[in-house]
Structures are given as structure tokens and as C-alpha cells.
Amino acid sequence: MKLSTPLSGVNQPLRGIALVVTATFLFASHDGLSKFLGGVYPVIMVVWARYLVHTLLMAGIFMPQAGLRVLRTQRPLLQTLRALCLLSTSLLFTAGLQYLPLAEATAVNFLAPVLVTALSVPLLKERVTVGQWVAVIMGFIGVLIVVHPGGAMFTPAILFPLGSALGFCFYQLLTRTLVAHDSPTTSNFFAGLCNTLIMSALVPFFWETPRWEHILLMLALGGCGMTAHLLLTQAFRHAAPALLAPFSYCQIVFAGLLGLIVFSQAPDTLSLVGIAVICLSGLGAAWMQRRP
Questions:
Q1: Cα separation of 185 and 197, whole Å?
Q2: Distance separating alpha carbons of residues 73 and 84, to the nearest angstrom
Q3: Nearest 5°: phi and psi at 121?
């Protein structure tokens, strides 16, 4: 998730909250589509379709006005590294969804904000309070509760969402660094184009001709991701990131509902406890971040 500074003089928190909640539903829908399509086609092909549609939509929206200027970056190497972090997140999370329930995998992936808090000390030289360290520890305890012996997540496949969370953590750290140099539009477009080119080079080795109804689902996959990112950008123009960040956890709720309705997968009691602990750790870290 990308945070941007709200426009001065604009304070419409309810509109911002509504946009964030809608975006989380689209992200959960994106993950549900990834889980379904990944069960039919190679993960490489699913991720390629996601980035291809995303990039084409961005080109259609922004290039008629800005042209190639939208790709001009002051930090091309950092932008490339950021794109690769996002690509690793997409590949690992989509692969993990083939073995894990949607809600639990999403919850473990939400360990990323907690990892950002922990790694911001050595990498960004930020100061982290005792309370924030407590939130970090709580996040890891939540994952251990989710991955309890005998549960659906007690499998080596848990490494997929954990790796995805780590990749997304570095993606967020690089986003913090690049926000002072490039616009969010440039960063998003650059990442989408870079990952589309990489996946386009790989997809011929994994190609399976999709059925027409699955082509529509692939278009919806990219559309959900792109629309969600645009809604987030608009949301943070209406209210402060610290206010809106807790509502991003609605994605776990939507993932649980979609997992139950579409895939008939319901978390057990201990998994629900672990998911709640992960959410509380993230909310606690976000609340302490907004304090001076």
C-alpha cells in the first residue's frame, strides 16, 4: 500500500475511509482471482497478466496527458529494485495461495507493516519506541499462533506469504525513500512497466492458451489491482495516512469472507486468534506512528 500526503486544506475523512475500504475489497478480490487462476494456469502466467493489464490501464490513463514524462525518474536503480521487490511479493503470495487459505495467507502478508517498523531502524535510521517494538513482537506471536501445529497453515508453504511480507516490507521502505524524488504516478508506472517486461520474457516458457472466460478474469485481475491503487491514491488526498491506515485491515475481513464463500475455507479458532493478534499489532504500530 502506498501512502501519499493529503492535499492542504482538504479534510474529508469519511470519503477517505470509504475509498480505502473499497480499495481493500478490490485487493481481496484481486487475491481471490489470483488464487482461482493460479489453480488453473502457471503462477508466472497469472502474475504476467496482472502486470500487463495494470500497465496498459496506466498508460491509457496517464500517457495521453504526460507522455513519456511519466516514466522519468531521478532514481532509476532504486525504482528498479522497488519494482523487483513488488514482483517478488506478487510471485510468492500468488504461489502461496495455491496451498493456503485466503484469509490466513492475507493475514500473514499483513506482517509487512510490522517488519517495516523493525527494519526502519537499521535501514532508515529511524527511532522506534518501546511500544512499537512491542507491536513488532506481537506481530510475530500472531504468526506463530496462526501457524500452530495441526492447523491448515502448519506447512512449509507458510514460507510463501512470509517471503511475500518481507518483499513488501522492502517495497514500502524503498517507497519511503523515493517519495522525495519521484511522484507516486511515476513510481507505480515504472514498477508496472518493469515487471511487465520481466514477466513477458518469462511467460513464453509457461504459456497455456487461456479459455475466453478466463481471459475476462485475467482482465478483471489487473483491473482490480489498478483501480485499488488509484482509489488509495485518492483516499490519501482526503485524509491523513495515520487515520486511514487501520482501515486497510478490512482486507483481511474481505479475504475471509471470499475464502468462505468462494473456496469454502474458514479459519479455525486459533487461526482467528492469531489473525486478531496480527491486526492488533499493526493497528498499534500505526497508532504509535501518528503520535509526535
A1: 18
A2: 16
A3: -70, -55
The reply to whether 7 falls in a domain is no
Radius of gyration of the chain (CA): 18
Interaxial angle between packed helices 13-38 and 250-263, expressed in degrees from 0 to 180 and rounded to the nearest 10: 40
Distance separating alpha carbons of residues 51 and 41, to the nearest angstrom? 16
Residue 163: pLDDT band (50, 70, 90) is: very high
Decide if 3 is inside a domain: no
> What pTM was computed for the model?
0.88
Q: What is the pLDDT of residue 242?
A: 67
* Dist. CA 261–CA 70, nearest whole Å: 40
Residue 239 within any structural domain of the chain: yes
Within a domain: 6? no
Q: Residue 167 is placed in which grid cell?
A: 518483499
Q: How many domains does the chain have?
A: 1
| CA within 13 Å, CB half, 72 | 5
